Amino acid sequence: MTQKQQTWKKNLYENVDYPDNYTDKTFLEELKKNVHITEISPRSAVLGAGLVTQEISIVIFFVIIYVYLYNGWIEPETVIVQSSLVATIGYLLYRIVLTKKNYYEALVKDLRTVLIFVVFGYILSPVLKTLTDTISTDTIYATASFMMIIHLIFFDYGVPAAIVSSSLSLNAAIFGSVCLASRLASPFHAFVLLTNAVECFVLLPILLSKGRGSVIVLTAMIAIAVYVLWTVSLIMMVLCVCITLFVTVLCPVWFLRWQNCKENIYGPWDEAIVHDTEM
C-alpha cells in the first residue's frame, strides 16, 4: 500500500518527502510590497533638496564677506555693525516670537555667552590670524574649500543618517574660517570674519531651522546668494545658478521618477528579527 505524502509545511525539518527548495502556492500569500514606503510630494522633494541649496547659500554669504574684506571693498567696522544688527534682529525674533516660555532667562544666558565670545575672540584674534600665516595662499584656499565641502556633506539637513555629524560639520566650517582669516590685513579683520563665521554657521542655521519648508525663505536665500555673487563674478553667479537648478529642480525630479520604480518585497523568507521583551 502506497503511503500518503505529508502536507507541505513551512518547516524544513518536517518536509521529509519534499525537496529543500520546494514551496507550494501558499508560500507567496504573505508576500508584501513597499510596506514602509513613504509617498513624497513634488513640493516636499523640492523643499527637502532646498535645504542643501540653503546651506550652500550660507557658505556663499561667508565667502563673499571674506572677498570684500580681503579686497578692501568694505570696511570691517561696517561689516560687523551690519551683520551684528541682522543677527540681533533674527535672534530676538527667534527668542521672543518662537520661544514661548522663559525667554528673558534665555536672553540673559545667551547675552553672557556672546560677551564671553566677543572678549576672548578679540583677544585671541592676533593669534588666530598668525596661526596659518606661514602656509602658502594656494594651500590655504584649497584647505578652506575642502573644509567647506566637509561642512556641507556632514551637515544635519533633518534626515537621520549615519553620515550626519553636526560637530564635524561645524568644526570644519570654523577651521576653514580660521584659514581664511590668516589672509586678511589685520587682527581686527580676522576677528570680524570669525564673528561672521559664527553668525553664518551657528546662529543662522538655528534661525532658519524654524523656517524649514518655507518657499519664501528658500527663494530669498537663493536670490540673495545669486545677487552677491553677481557683484563679485559673473562666472561664479552662473555656476551658482546651475548648481541651484541641479540640486533644487533636477535632483527632486530624478528622485520622484525613481521612487515610482521602487519595489521592495517582504515575505516569509526574510530573516527573523528578535525583539527584546520586558519581563
Automatic annotation (TrEMBL):
Pathway: Glycolipid biosynthesis; glycosylphosphatidylinositol-anchor biosynthesis. It is a multi-pass membrane protein. The keyword Transmembrane helix applies. It holds the Pfam family GPI2. Keywords: GPI-anchor biosynthesis, Membrane, Transmembrane, Transmembrane helix. One of its GO terms (cellular component) is glycosylphosphatidylinositol-N-acetylglucosaminyltransferase (GPI-GnT) complex. Coiled coil: none annotated. Its main location: membrane. It is found in: Membrane. The keyword Nucleotide-binding does not apply. The chain crosses the membrane at residues 45-68, 80-98, 110-128, 140-159, 168-185, 191-208, 215-230, 236-256. One of its GO terms (biological process) is GPI anchor biosynthetic process. Belongs to the PIGC family. This is Phosphatidylinositol N-acetylglucosaminyltransferase subunit C. It comes from Zootermopsis nevadensis (Dampwood termite).
